[in-house]
Amino acid sequence: MRIHLPWLGQGDIFGEVPVIGAELDPAGNVHAYSSPGPAVLLTHDCAMDKPDKATGLPRVERLQFARLREITALSPDRQANLRGAAKKVGPFEALYLDEIPQFGETFMLLTDPYYLPARYFDLTLLAHGDHPEAESQSAIYTTPRRHDTRIGRIDAEQLDLLRQKMLAHWTRFDLDQS
Hints:
Shape: globular
Number of strands: 8
Largest sheet: 6 strands, antiparallel
Order of helices and strands: EEHEHEEEEEH
Helix content: 10-25%
Distance between the termini: 29 Å
Radius of gyration: 17 Å
Low-confidence stretches: none
Oligomer: single chain
Strand order of the largest sheet: 4-5-3-2-1-8
Number of domains: 1
Strand content: 35-45%
């Protein structure tokens, strides 16, 4: 895990955001729930940094997340499988994230995405030209003004693997096999 940038980026790890889910009651009815928890931002950077011509604010309407999960919730054999495939595209649905200081050994599932309204974060576009990772002095980036509970960002190697897994998971196109 590395330090997050001042602006939002795919792979940002939030310590606490609303985590949305659904469960089935004994009668077979679906109930949605929201509870605070850790999550990884899945929305791609360029989808967030487009301005609305009328307002000048980010055009993005919702941000996609996947909840951060503790590996200890899995059976020992599934834990071993995830650890053993930590740097591989397969299994497509899961990304092993290793040790996150506040949460222990973690992973996320691409089969468990959810969305939050972008307005929840009161997003604005700001230039961060003095930052060493800024593309240029005038480049603008989507920056949260509220509910910014980011604790870090997955490292560059994991981010690349996340993108490969997303492609493979949603299209069944495996880059390792091409």
